[in-house]
Amino acid sequence: MSANGTQPGNIDENQAKHALVSSWFLGPRAENLDVLEKLFSQALKRQRDTRVELADDESDKYFFITEDMKKLDIYKQSIHRLSKNSTDLSGKLAKHSVPFWSPRYNAHMNMDTTLASIIGYMSTMIYNPNNVATEASPFTTEVERQVGQELSEMLGYNRQDENPAPWGHITCDGSVANLEAIWATRNLKFYPISLKLAIEEGPLKFLSTVEPPFKVETCNSGSKEFMQLTIKELLNLTPSTVLSIPTLLGEKYSISPGFLQDALRPFLVQTTGKDVLERKLEINPGKYMICATKHYSWPKGGAISGIGSENFVDVNVDNEARMNPKDLRTKLDECISNNTPIFGVVAIMGSTEHGACDPLAEIIKIRNEYQEKKGVSFAVHCDAAWGGYFASMLWGRDGRGPGDIPYVPAMPLNPYTKTQLEALKDADSITIDPHKSGYINYPAGGLCYRDGRMRYLLTWTSPIVFHPGDDKGSMGVYGVEGSKPGASAVATWLTHQSLGLDQEGYGRLLGEAIFSCTKVCSILTSLLIAEYPSMG
Fold it and tell me: Which one GO biological process term can you cite for this protein (predicted)?
């Protein structure tokens, strides 16, 4: 608007939408500082009011910090020291910090953060909620749960069908999200083995003779008696089949969740370690398939989980730095011929060095083919730490999805990338980092499961079965972290609410980013061709 409060003339739709994007950030010249100052001032005043309201009890006339205290020299000296140190700190941060907000800075994969993220984090930080447990964070735990559902929906999980219900949560970063995915997949693969041992050697022995016999759906041979399954068949039950086992046992044989968990505990990979189970049943060490452009967190996760970094097999890439499906098939077939279990295949959606998206749609097709024709099942995980938020470009504000309305916010996704993002809904789990292409302050990683029951594989207190009331429980028991800042969840949530996870929100922002990157790439290419004509 102009100074007199009227809209300037001759503003087209693109200019208006860019102005909308501009309202989301502080700006390279701090153009929106007045907005941030106002919002943070409001947050500070609300913090003051909250403390005063809580302390303002007729029975409590005691003031912890009195006016007489403030007059003492020792008090004044302490405040002066704090003021001086704070001023010095501000100067050092200004002088020595990296100017990620500047459009002239391109040395790192980093950028400015949204006003909503900044004010959300700063406002919540004062209350210092710990999302490790609901009692320490009643509001921010609920916010984190909502963020997980928002991310799951944006990624395409169960938008039309509520069964199975997806689940997601905030982690400190993508490395921990990847580690949790490794952990969950490892536990998923060994769960049927543990159940078999608990029936043969433990308190579930009655299941070996019960009538009718306990049956499960095999990968490609229909329903079979569980105790008649071979080790290969047990290791290749589909994720949904494994996750349904506790529910089936409860419904058919009235086995309570608590009894089942106690009976399984001595035989779980969580208890024994995978090496014990592998030696006992003569199982070869399992492997993960992952693109050669993988992030270093994957071999690190292999080391931490006990799978071993050498069991993360590099799949060759094509000329676009994408996983080569033909080489993936070759390496999968090698595992099958060697009786080597396959934990999963990891598809990278936005590699660190190249921004490349692996052919997820083809990987899903290969997984389905191997299940049907070869009796081999494995999980598919997407490392979409960088690329996940680009799925917002698929969805209209009215909820319509790909193909229903034009998905062009600024510069469109290319058809190949669009196809891969549409296939996210078929992956078993997805890493997505709000502190990357979500423009959120650190630390804010994320992990989403297509089937929310997978989270029970990572807790020490619950079996893989849904309990009434679990959706109101803690977020902190389902992962690696202990204490975790509620401020990160709020920063993410407030940005989601302010921008929107659709074409008009994040889709517009990321569409402009695609356009800008394409323009810079074109300019650099032109300069190279001018200097080296043979490249033209």
Answer: carboxylic acid metabolic process
